[in-house]
Specification:
By secondary structure, the protein is of the alpha+beta class. It is built from seven helices and 17 strands. Among the domains are: 38-70; 139-239, TATA-Binding Protein; 247-319, TATA-Binding Protein. The protein has a 17-stranded antiparallel beta sheet that branches. The structure holds a DNA duplex (16 and 16 nucleotides). Pfam families: TBP.
DNA sequence: CACATATAAAAGGTCA
DNA sequence: TGACCTTTTATATGTG
């Protein structure tokens, strides 16, 4: 990496479009913390593989020439120079005044975004208590039907980061408060993985928004940089859905795993406190916890989630704990400890005491 | 408080 | 060829 430390004056061509933050990752040689975030200005166009970075401080601007291939992650914000951690508490850029990542503008689009912001709730179902499934994550793939220059994307799109040394996709996040949160992994082939949506409507909105963002990136001379040809129905496929629910009573996981003799179940509390139950039809994986909370994942549709839960519910009832305590985590933990203590008196098998971690 | 453990799923690059 | 990387999300334990 080439890091000349000469101070220069601000280049006249700097505009809000040029404002970015850059994240210097471990191994680049600047710092050895995992992420060292610097408030930076970045100027483009850039020579292949490098970015010219202008760090603003009280003395003026410090020019750095960083090599993208050397582990530099560049992130562009929405008009404000600011440093932020990649996994920190959001809030980056995008004040309401500037255009959001996908300002469809029309009232319809606004309404669509507002609708998409609501988490999808399935149920309650008859004869299943008052259980409702809350969808917490939807993963989908979208095909933009054209190759994409990821360096252009990271330079031009808001809230984009790209570190080819770390991962081969460019990551774009929707963090506008007026639209549903979502994250896209954009690959150079034009394939996009969208995660973080909380409903079908939300993932559809996110796919359309990412397609629009990519299609509107300009090539530096006013024209579009990519010929995006995305059709929602044709090119979007939901790949995974995660939902959570609470059956409202504690569950005897030891009993549940014993009754299934390991054919569906895997329960190793030393490794992970949840029981893992893999249902074959529909193909859904359940994480079942003593507290009565249940996580469902692996589904391709809301219908599969519903079918799987309805099929699972009687089994959960079967292994309902006799002693029902109040549902605070502290009391649940106490109840669990008490239950395992009493279990140890009548069953000497107790694999839990062994700290054999393989 | 951050991170590890575990679950599903896709993408495409890298490495043994 | 398969394992890993990365992203997201709920869940709940333990460790530093």
């Amino acid at each position: 990496m080439n890091v000349p430390s000469s101070f220069i004056s601000a280049p006249p061509e700097l505009s809000w479009k040029s404002v970015v933050t850059a994240t210097i990752l471990r191994g680049v040689g600047v710092r050895h913390t995992r992420h060292t975030c610097l408030p930076l200005l970045l100027v483009f166009p850039i020579p292949t593989g490098t970015v010219n970075v202008y760090l603003r401080n009280c003395c003026g601007l410090l020019k750095l020439v960083l090599n993208l291939e050397a582990g530099v992650c560049v992130r562009r914000c929405a008009g404000q120079v600011e440093a932020h951690m990649p996994r920190g508490g959001g809030g980056a850029g995008s004040s309401s005044g500037s255009k959001g990542a996908a300002p469809l503008g029309k009232q319809d689009a606004f309404n669509e975004a507002q609708t998409a912001m609501r988490a999808q709730v399935i149920g309650p179902f008859e004869n299943h208590g008052q259980c409702k499934l809350s969808m917490v994550n939807v993963t989908a793939t979208a095909d933009m039907k054209c190759t994409i220059d990821l360096k252009t994307v990271v330079m031009r799109a808001r809230n984009a980061e790209y570190n080819p040394k770390r991962f081969s996709a460019c990551i774009i996040r929707l963090i506008n408060k007026n639209e549903p949160k979502a994250t896209a992994l954009v690959f150079k082939t034009g394939k996009v993985v969208v995660t973080g949506s909380r409903s079908n409507a939300s993932v559809d909105y996110a796919c359309k928004t990412f397609a629009r963002i990519l299609s509107k990136l300009d090539n530096g001379s006013g024209g579009p940089s990519h010929k995006i040809n995305f059709d929602l129905e044709r090119d979007r496929r939901v790949q995974n859905m995660v939902a959570t629910t609470d059956v409202g009573f504690p569950i005897r996981l030891e009993g549940l795993v014993a009754s299934n003799q390991g054919c569906f179940c895997n329960y190793e509390p030393e490794l992970f406190p949840g029981l893992i139950y893999r249902m074959k039809d529909p193909k859904i994986c359940f994480l079942i916890f003593v507290s009565g909370k249940v996580v469902l994942t692996g589904a391709k549709s809301a219908q599969q989630l519903e079918d799987g839960f309805k099929k699972m519910y009687p089994t959960l009832c079967q292994f309902k704990k006799a002693t029902v305590l109040l549902q605070t985590s502290a009391t649940a933990r106490t109840a669990n400890a008490a239950a395992s203590a009493s279990a140890s008196t009548d069953s000497s098998s107790e694999p839990a005491r062994k700290k054999t971690k393989t």
